[in-house]
Design goal:
The complex is a heterodimer of chains A (113) and B (112).
Chain A: E1 4-6, E2 10-13, E3 19-25, E4 31-38, E5 42-49, E6 56-57, E7 64-70, E8 73-78, E9 87-94, E10 103-104, E11 108-112
Parallel strand pairs in A: 2-11
Antiparallel strand pairs in A: 1-3, 3-8, 4-5, 4-9, 5-6, 7-8, 9-10, 9-11
Chain B: E1 4-7, E2 10-14, E3 19-25, E4 32-38, E5 45-51, E6 56-59, E7 62-67, E8 72-77, E9 86-94, E10 99-102, E11 106-111
Parallel strand pairs in B: 2-11
Antiparallel strand pairs in B: 1-3, 3-8, 4-5, 4-9, 6-7, 7-8, 9-10, 9-11
The chains are: A mainly beta (113), B mainly beta (112).
């Protein structure tokens, strides 16, 4: 079974703090994704990575950056957290060669106060 | 830009009845259409998908139909059960690189 884990289920940060969300997958998947999920807006793609050290902006990259130094780990960074970044953050991974299914982590509920 | 519209946003059906959720997409290059189910407090999981060379696909009580001409696809759940209660998301591939454009989700409520 594919396992995708995220570093925290719940996180509370203050405005202006630098925030790191980490995602690890154990299936040697090439592709990894960061989404935010807000009620009525579905899943919106923040950034994705096709392979190690490769990253591309998704639909809402403003205020975020990412890092992928190792194949199994994809980090999302909020450089200076703001209250409008309060959300559920979901990481996903996918085998880039054969299969199209995205496997999701359990999510991190981030609250910025 | 490309988008996927999903309707309805909430659907309430009697246990045992059928449920239908509809999506339309705008990117004519989309060729992969998955459906994900997210139970309360859990992660989204793929339940069924369809590729553009197929018009319909079934898996037990769930089926997906695709009309490429009209750019819409639908999820059908028959003989609904309490465990079908969840939020369902449709998605369409973005061009040919298998990024996904997601619908806003449908909350399906099964009434006992």
């Amino acid at each position: 079974d594919v396992k995708v884990t995220q570093s925290s289920r719940y996180l509370v940060k203050r405005t202006g703090e630098k925030v790191f969300l980490e995602c690890v997958q154990d299936m040697d998947h090439e592709n990894m994704f960061w989404y935010r999920q807000d009620p009525g807006l579905g899943l919106r793609l923040i950034y994705f990575s096709y392979d190690v050290k490769m990253k591309e902006k998704g639909d809402i990259p403003e205020g975020y950056s990412v890092s992928r130094e190792k194949k199994e780990r994809f980090s999302l960074i909020l450089e200076s957290a703001s209250t409008n970044q309060t959300s559920m953050y979901l990481c996903a991974s996918r085998d880039g060669l054969r299969l199209y299914e995205q496997y999701f982590g359990p999510g991190t509920r981030l609250t910025v106060t | 830009g490309e988008n996927v519209e999903q309707h309805p946003s909430t659907l309430s059906v009697q246990e045992g009845d059928s449920a239908v959720i509809k999506c339309t997409y705008s990117d004519s290059a989309s060729n992969y259409f998955p459906w994900y189910k997210q139970e309360l407090g859990k992660r989204p999981q793929l339940i069924i998908d369809i590729r553009s060379n197929v018009g319909e696909k079934k898996d037990q009580r769930i089926a997906v139909t695709l009309n490429k001409t009209a750019k819409h696809f639908s999820l059908h759940i028959t003989e609904t059960q309490p465990e079908d209660s969840a939020v369902y998301f449709c998605a369409a591939s973005k061009g040919s690189n298998y990024q996904l454009i997601w619908g806003a989700g449908t909350k399906l409520i099964i009434k006992p």
